[in-house]
Structure formats: C-alpha cells, structure tokens
Design brief:
The chain is of the alpha/beta class and 234 residues long. The protein contains 8 helices and 7 strands; from the N terminus they run αααβαβαββαβααββ. α5 links the parallel β2 and β3.
C-alpha cells in the first residue's frame, strides 16, 4: 500500500494523473505529446504563423503596456515573445515542449529572448507583464490554483497579465467535475467572460473582449473563437 499525499502539491500531482497524457500541458507525458504536435511545421495550425496576437499589438499601440520585463507562458514557437523583444521588452519565455522551444529559438535569431524548456509554474523572478496566448485553456481545473500562485508570485504590483483563451463555443463547456469524470479536457476548456472575471477576481480588469478576426494578410494574428483579456495587479 502506497501513501503519497502529504502536501497540496501532492494532491495536484495526483489530480494531474487523472487526465490522459496530452490532454493538457502539465500532466505526465504532456511534453512528448506537444513535441509531436510541433514536429511538423507545415501543418495548417492557426497559431503557427510568425506574427503577434492582435490584442497584444493593440495594447502597445494604445499605450496600455510599456516595455519592461515580460514572461510568455506557454510560448510555443515564440511569436509573441519575439514581438515583445522587438518592442523593447526583456523577455523570458517558457514552454513544456522542447520542440517548440527549438523552433522559437530559431525564429528569434539575433534577438535577446531567454527561452526555457520546462514547467512555467516553477518560474522565479519578477515581471511587469505576464502574457499567455493559448496555455490557460489547456489546464485542468485544479491547475488554476498553480496558475494563480504563479501570477501572485512573479507579477509586480502595477504589472499586467494578458490572456487569450477559448470561448465556451470553441472549448468544452462541460462543468469542471465532468472533466474529471471523463479524464479529458476534450481539446481545451471553454470560458465565459464571467468565468474569467471570477478566476482572476484579485486583479483589476482593464479590458475583456472577443478577439478580432484578422485576415491572412494582416500583420497580426486574430481568431474570433478566442477571448482576449488584460488585467492589472494593483
């Protein structure tokens, strides 16, 4: 008989194991799943493009964000991290996929972006901006605890947290409890604006809206099945 729960982290790890590898970014084996996902760069995946999110570009254009230290959580092939670096930010970017990090490093040649392969929840340091484009909706419900702890730990007072994530039209609208019963996130968790305001209630909302659909020729990425949100830590 094995007894392996003594801390909150032990409980979170146990709950991770209820989901099949690859169902989210943080369960055992998820790195291998995402490595395979990123291995074929020719796949028609919307966010494989080499351009920033339209909301992120807009935040800078409107003066809502100014250069400082930035953390890109779940950076994938690095498109937003590269954009931030080109606009004067000191950027750390982390992803659980070594294949994604290798691709991002190639794209960022000549830029000072510090890419790291690993678990974003272990990140140390302090940041003026934490940016997440498509990571949060791949977390099982219990890992929202880890996510909020990360923001509380690394985000400087007065700093900003910016997010893009699935609407409940694109991601699963199943209740949290059902996700554990089925052992899957069904491709990603969908959220409503009220859900995001509830999860991030300790931060001040600056803006929350549907992402603008951008044409292929646009210099920015935009898909209307995503929410964009900007919060401030007071």
């Amino acid at each position: 008989m094995q007894r392996n729960i003594r801390t909150t982290d032990d409980v979170l790890t146990l709950l991770d194991g209820l989901f099949a590898p690859g169902a989210d970014r943080w369960t055992a084996g998820a790195g291998d799943w995402w490595d395979a996902f990123y291995a074929d760069r020719s796949r028609e995946v919307p966010f494989f493009v080499s351009k920033p999110d339209e909301n992120l570009a807009g935040y800078l254009d409107r003066g809502l964000l100014t250069p400082g230290r930035a953390l890109d959580v779940g950076c994938g092939p690095g498109r937003n991290a590269i954009f931030l670096a080109r606009n004067g930010f000191q950027v750390d970017a982390v992803d659980i996929s070594a294949t994604a990090i290798a691709w991002a490093t190639e794209r960022a040649e000549g830029l000072d972006v510090r890419f790291r392969h690993g678990d974003a929840f272990t990140t140390k340091g302090s940041y003026d901006l934490v940016y997440d484009s498509g990571c949060f909706h791949h977390l099982p419900p219990h890992r929202r605890i880890s996510y909020l702890a990360l923001l509380d730990r690394v985000l400087e007072p007065g700093g900003h947290f910016a997010l893009t994530c699935f609407t409940d039209e694109e991601g699963t609208a199943a209740p949290d409890a059902d996700l554990y019963r089925q052992g899957s996130l069904a491709g990603g968790v969908g959220y409503r604006p009220a859900d995001l305001r509830w999860v991030f209630q300790d931060l001040t909302e600056v803006e929350l809206r549907r992402m603008t659909e951008e044409p292929a020729a646009s210099p920015s990425f935009g898909k209307s099945f995503l929410w964009t949100a900007l919060f401030r830590k007071d």
